[in-house]
Amino acid sequence: MALREQFAYERVESRLEALISGGALGPGDRIPSVRELCRMERISPATAIQALTNLEARSLIFARPRSGFYVQSRPHLPLPTPAHAIARPQRPKVSEHVAQVFRDFDNPRTIALGAGIPHPSLLPTTEVARCVSRAARQYATDFGRYGSRETDLGLRKEIALRLSLAGCTMSPDEIVITTGCMDALNLAVRAVANPGDTVLVESPTFFGILQMLESLGMKVISVPSTCDRGLDIAAFERALSRYRIATCILIPSFGNPHGASLDDERRQTVVDLAARHGIPIIEDDIYAELGFDNSRHRPLRTFGRSGDNLLCGSLSKTLSPGLRIGWVAGGRYAEDVHRLKLVSSITTPQVTAKAAADYLRSGGFDRHLRGLRKMLETQMCRISSAIARAFPQGTALSRPGGGYFLWVELPERVNSLRLRDAASHHGISICPGPIFSHTGEFSHFIRVNCAIDWSSAVEAALQTLGQLAHVQNDSPSENS
Ligand SMILES: Cc1ncc(COP(=O)(O)O)c(C=O)c1O
Fold first, then answer.
1. Which of these, 277, 313, 329, 358, has the minimum number of CB atoms within 10 Å of its CB?
2. In a domain, 118, yes or no
3. Beta carbons within 8 Å of 215's beta carbon, 6+ residues apart
4. Gap from CA of 368 to ligand 1 centroid (Å)
5. Is the same domain home to 216 and 285?
6. Whole-angstrom distance, CA of residue 16 vs CA of residue 44
7. 205 lies in a domain?
8. What are the tens digits of pLDDT across the range 27-47?
9. Do 139 and 216 fall within a single domain?
């Protein structure tokens, strides 16, 4: 089929759309006026108005009377309802479910709306590749030996420096470099708990944590965490008093899946309560650098006696999931973490550790992060607006101030596992709610990843998902 030439208004519309999706124009930013567009693009006022009207019809921009057009911010849907109550200790069984959810994952034709994987276009992959090639040349002899505490010292110093900028001062000596955050969490929990022990998590929480505890033969107790304030402190206190808990794994900054964060006052209370019961907290800090207002939450460690709590993080969500660089700052458990790392995988590949240190030292990371946050916020607005337009009445939506995810509560008649199956037939993958709970709660919730490359195909996929949800919602017999 011959490609037709774009009309002038389509060209301007695409150009403005690219500025919005690329983050150059963020939520609430003013769009160039009709007069400015005419001058910049050498078009007539009618053409400029047509382009703006189209963007407005697609909810990308909105008009303020006598002021002009602005980039759309997020719609105000109600917040999703939290988990019902503390769920008593039991062994999690989510692995099979998760495996099923990720079945179509590697299919390049699938529009992946669920998995928390950043689209490569959001990351500085060329710069990272350059650092890796340079490190491979410079440290070629590292391929001929195992690493030691000396070979990754450069990276440990860079991480200690970044954490100290977040108010968390520590020596590089207590940091162990790991193969991503998953490895970090695994080592941290094994340093403070044994098979059969009970670990407290938030509900909902990242399914990877539940899978890990399942594989380690540990039991899980979960405490409700709300979309606006994070962990329910009163329930947390009750759980600590009532049950014998070995450790808590918390995601207090832009949590997965709901994007909620604890404020400083609540961080202090959580740390004090855990200290009173002599329970170490393992903090998963992986999204903490992704606050849309460019501020960074202080890690929980800074609220207590330094060394009592463990801090895990990685570069997977901010720089490169493929580098597989993570860390644990183990506090007084650092030697145990180090020993466990030796036992499980000896070291993390040293050449990539050196490449990561090189990238962090280069000074471009903060600039990249500012762009990434802007893009994530823009995508979150667009996806929120698309959900508000396409999903059934009664849908509720989280409003995170950072991170990757939107937590969506559909009307109760919609079953998210069945929605997953239906979506999969349309080449769309989603993350259904029950994988975020060790008791299978959240049957009418889904998690949506906003770290994607926005396109008309994504927009159409969200619309299709909305239609599928409508079908379930309107057919009560399907759910009986
Ligand atoms: C909260 C949380 N922790 C840990 C991980 C795993 O991170 P990594 O890829 O660095 O192992 C993820 C990935 O989705 C996550 O969302």
1. 277
2. no
3. 95
4. 20
5. yes
6. 16
7. yes
8. 788 999 999 999 999 999 999
9. yes
Instruction: Write the DSSP string, 217-275.
Output: T-EEEEEEEETTTEE-HHHHHHHHHHS--SEEEE--SS-TTT-----HHHHHHHHHHHH
**CA 181 to ligand 1 centroid distance, Å:** 5
Which residue, 304, 333, 365, sits at the end of a domain? 365
Mean pLDDT of 420-437: 93
**Average pLDDT value over all residues in the chain:** 91
The pLDDT tens digits for 249-300 are 999 999 999 999 999 999 999 999 999 999 999 999 999 999 998 889 999 9
CA of 480 to the centre of ligand 1 (A): 36
Ligand 1 centroid to Cα of residue 365, in Å, is 19
In testing the pocket of ligand 1, which one of 101, 159, 178, 181 has its CB within 8 Å of the most ligand atoms? 181
- Pick from 365, 394, 423: which residue ends a domain? 365
Whether the CB-CB separation of 327 and 313 falls below 8 Å is answered with yes
Q: Within a domain: residue 356?
A: yes
- As for how many domains the chain has, the answer is 3
Q: Which domain holds residue 51?
A: 8-71
Question: Is the C-beta atom of 116 inside 6 A of ligand 1?
Answer: yes
* Residue 58 clears pLDDT 80, i.e. is over it: no
pLDDT above 90 coverage of the chain, percent: 70
